[in-house]
Design goal:
This protein has 19 helices and no strands. The chain is mainly α.
Length: 448
Amino acid sequence: MGLNLAQYIPFAIYFISFVVAFLSLFVNPTIGVLFLFPLLPYQLIFEKIKLLPLGKDINDIIIFCILIGFIFRTAGNRENHVTGNTFFKKKTGLYLPIMLLVVANVIGFFNTTLSYGLGFDLTNNYFLDLKNYMLLPLIWFLTFKNIKNKKILKLLTFLMVIGVLGADYYFYVNLQWMNIWHFSERTRTMMEGLFVYLGANHYGAFFAHFVFILIGIFLFDQLRGRKIILLMIISFTIYCLMYSFSRGAYIAFIAGLLFIGFVKERRILLLLFFFFLFWRFLVPISVYERVKMTKNDEGELEESAAIRIVLWNEAMNMFRESPIIGKGFNTFQFTYKDRVWKDTHNFYIKMLVELGILGVGAFLFLLYKTFLTGWKLYKEADDRFLKGLGLGFSACVISTAITNAFGDRWSYLSLGSYFWIFLGIVTCARVNNMAEPLKPPRIKPPLK
């Protein structure tokens, strides 16, 4: 708006964070959920906060205060003492797969630490990596447990939608000074910023995952004005997805649309049919060039695709050395002979190498159960908003499953946090019977 206020946003968030931490601890932990969780992808802001006292730990401080505040509030709730309610009493179908994934990663951590002779303290970088990774299921738990009614659920969803729109806008602003008329790898490497250490493929995955939440809500919303606004945000997100030049994200987006087309809106299938016929003339030249880069004129794989094949072959050789529990948590980047390539560029293969069959089995089990959670909400809900939320999250899980076949789109806080937050929202809607319609008031018959 020309006011040059953006530079003050990190400082405002920094000071507000301590107030929110205090309120989460002593007043209501839901305050921390509503404030922090929609901001988690905005790691560029938190990078600037790191320079301030306790700035690098601000996320952990708020999350810790939310957890302790929730424990205090639950312990002091008279209803829980009467009914015997506990943290884990309500069945979600998710505790088992999440615990299996946690156990697999903890075993991988001990495997790595013992193999490399590292200490079990904060000087062990693997411990910090594991802690950051474990924040994701904790975020799900805190989201699920701190949403007390449908009003808070809708408010958090609204804030998350604004968060997606903000990511769209930041990406769009960066595009303005790039040459995107023709595709170039140099341009792709410049698409960083909001996620700090992540690049264009991660941007593409973010858009491909969470655009389906918007689409699901849009399909069931009955207010014309709100549908128009949602359609504008969806279009903006698809525009950003297109210029991420991520082929994996393209495939994931199409797969999610096919799913929604088959189960809900057949007109989407018709649109996709015409798109496949004429896509060459509908997409920008740079996007067409990027898609056609998968193979060169001689029919051979282009360089990045060819390197992935080499990496996967090497990774599978490592998997055969320890197929059950793997080589250890986050070890591939240090064990592969070519240090330039620090990732398998396929999360499933990464899990096989590092955590073995135990790890990848837990991950696949969790994906199945999360999909089932969204699907059941879609099928059971009478509330149109919750029905759309369930359908959109189901498509989001499908998209997530596909993008992870092209790289790690799961374990980063900035990219993965929204998945766990939306999972918490969907879980809360199902477990707390928010999917049930409101019962009409009972009217006493007139006295005779």
